[in-house]
Amino acid sequence: MKNRGSKVIQIFAFICGMLLLFQMEAVSQEEDKHNELTELSKQTQNPVANMYQVPLSYMGDFNSGVDKIFVSTLNLKPVMPFNLSKNLLLIFRAIIPVIFMSAPVSKSGLSDIQLQLYLSPKSKSKFIWGIGPLLSVPSGIPANMCSGKWTLGPNAAVLVMLKHVVFGTLVTQRWSFAGDGSMPDVNAMYVNPYVNYNFHKGWALGYSPEFYIDWTKVGNNWNWPVGLVASKVFKIGKQPFSANVSYYYNVIRPENYSDMYVKVGITLLIPKH
């Protein structure tokens, strides 16, 4: 009887041990999944990440222009990295905007397409940077939906990637060099500083204002947005995506500039292996 009881206890202990191992393995796999989502979330905050991305975003500007209209912009912003060498990346980014203007203006169409290139070193450093040229094409369809000018200039990105925090800035400067002589010249800077705190399971919260400076004007030629952006990386099956939503109010703005805007977006992520 004692031997039989001892065997029962041993079998029971073995079963309990196996169940505990299975549970620990399941917890470990779940933790790995959550860590993967968090790392992907941090990579989406890196403008020169070595990862294919296909972002589609919507932006709604309130009380824009002389007529104080609502302006909707749908942006397709594909990102394609290429290996130039073992230690150097070439990142191609495009911004393809389609704009919809409400009454009384009531017009819509394709606006200027912007093409950007970045050279960025491959590194495991917390400090990351990229620099290169940009070209803006007067691709308006109809023609009155764009600036009418070809523009050229530099763009640069610098950022620091810590365990939970990613902060940096993206800067572009454009000058017009050709195009419709009846249209105003372009001399404009774009500055996008940002700081994001990455939570567990791919969630992030941050501040990512977009400053536009028109150097052709003297005084009251820039904006200052205040707001927040929330984002989440998730998977559908094995395919990762990133989604975000943000709201900003321009506490400082030029005359006839929109007083606030909202943005929502979703990005298809294709990590390189």
Give the helix tally. 1
Uncertain residue segments: 22-30
Return the CATH topology. Porin
Please provide the count of β strands. 15
CATH superfamily: monomeric porin ompg
Order of strands side by side in the largest beta sheet? 1-2-4-6-7-8-9-10-11-13-14-15
Helix/strand structural class: alpha+beta
CATH architecture: Beta Barrel
Distance between the termini: 59 Å
Mean of residue pLDDT values: 89
Note the main sheet.
12 strands, antiparallel, barrel
Helical coverage, percent range: 10-25%
| Number of separate domains | 1
CATH class identity? Mainly Beta
Topology of this protein?
Blueprint: H1 2-44, E1 51-64, E2 69-76, E3 79-83, E4 88-101, E5 107-110, E6 113-121, E7 127-137, E8 149-161, E9 165-179, E10 187-198, E11 203-207, E12 211-214, E13 224-236, E14 239-252, E15 260-271
Antiparallel strand pairs: 1-2, 1-15, 2-4, 3-4, 4-5, 4-6, 6-7, 7-8, 8-9, 9-10, 10-11, 10-12, 11-13, 13-14, 14-15
Structure write-up:
By secondary structure, this protein is α+β, with helices and mostly antiparallel strands. It has a single domain, classed as Porin, CATH 2.40.160. Helices cover 16% and strands 56% of the residues. Strands 1-2-4-6-7-8-9-10-11-13-14-15 form a 12-stranded antiparallel β-barrel. Strand 4 and strand 5 form a beta hairpin. The longest helix is centred in the first third of the chain and has 43 residues. The protein is globular. The N and C termini lie far apart (59 Å). The relative contact order is 0.15. About 3% of the residues have low confidence.
